[in-house]
Here is the input.
Amino acid sequence: EVRLLESGGDLVQPGGSLRLSCAASGFSINNYPMTWVRQTPGGGLQWVSTITATGTTYYADSVKGRFTISRDLSKNTLLLQMNSLRAEDTAIYYCAKRGFLDLTYYFDYWGQGSMVTVSS
Amino acid sequence: EIVLTQSPGTLSLSPGERATLSCRTSQHLSRSFLAWYQQKPGQAPRLLVYAAVSRATGIPDRFSGGGSGTDFTLTISRLEPEDSALYYCQHYESSPFRVTFGPGTKVDIK
Here is the structure.
């Protein structure tokens, strides 16, 4: 059974850093693109970052240069290092697995989410 | 950048009725790049439809996706009380790489 479990969310001051983890089970993250999506307090879903099976990374313009997506393959875990955090980064962060269909991106499994609050 | 517009903002219907949700895109899309999700309060989004018309595993057949070009639809043929939720469409662009979600449609079952 595929499972994704996020951790690492916290209250952090503006300008601070945080690292989110997403422990995967039931499949190898080495074989699938993995993505972080966040949901703001207003409710909208925003794509944050994707890492492909080959390790290529992509970022939304709003986080480029501040966030870094990576994988710890030995632990089958997806990571998101977030630096220079801003109030507008406050959101629930979900990790998601891409579906099996190649050449497109949709997300067939999601974690339960990890809350990040940026506030002084 | 492709913009997704969902309508209506809220749909209030009775059990057994048919719901038609719209996702309009600012540019022509390949069907392969359009998906639909359901989200209930306190839960993560759940994949309903991918590649515009393919139902995800375990999704009841009362959910169906359709459309092409710039107009896509999610139809719930016979509403049940548990269908009360937010519904999002999602698109993928390859160059530059970008994933975009629509603003969502709220479905209330009276």
In short: Chain B has a mean pLDDT of 96. The two ends of chain B are 37 Å apart (CA to CA).
